[in-house]
Please model this.
Amino acid sequence: MRRALWLPLIVAAGVVVLTLGACTGSGAWTTVFMVEPDELASTGRNPYFVLEPGYSLVLEGGGAQLIITVLNETKKVDGVETRVVEERETKGGQLVEVARNYFAISKRTNDVFYFGEDVDMYKDGRLVSHDGTWLSGVNGGKFGLMMPGRALLGARYHQEVAPKVAMDRATIVSVSETVKTPAGEFTNCLKVAETTPLQGFTTEYKHYAPGIGMVQDGSLKLVKVGRADGPKKERVAREGGGQR
Model:
């Protein structure tokens, strides 16, 4: 077995029990995930989350646009090869944020885990900060669960654990939503409520359609699903943390 990536670890019957540590808020939030050695991959999909290079989603609403692209690029984070997913947000035609998110998927359960992000924030066309940047294994950061392979109504789990930086947590509030978007009508959608102890009582809602991924994020709705042709050979980013 390779060097342990997360502490504390308890090994029994070939299964690694990952403890992410205590969380702020209700004790009902799931912070312990079962991860077997070498089960994580940088490419794959579960019913609501696609990690295939070139896959893209475009959402729009209220003068804003969000483009999500699964890049043909990986990055080693906390000893794990993760897939880079870029989120590019504009408002009124001006770039406001570019985030490079790092995900890995379990080949055993189809759970998608979130290992951090590098964030560039813009104002009036100029880069002004890297607020929200965090990586698993850096400054107390530990990865969380972004999308379970099996969605259970009422499930509550942390998506990220980066003290004082990013502590998003999710609750599955419905598995049977119908969402109408410019790209079409989607049924049997997953509805997720996202909160964070860092921003008081703020709640955001996201909807995910089977086989597609996110189709609504607040006022943003899906307008296009596509695939972009990437380079034949994947570009592998260097392992490291913080600002690029």
User: Anything to note?
Assistant: The CA atoms of residues 44 and 51 lie 5 Å apart. The longest strand covers residues 64-77. The chain has one domain: 9-226. The two ends are 31 Å apart (CA to CA).
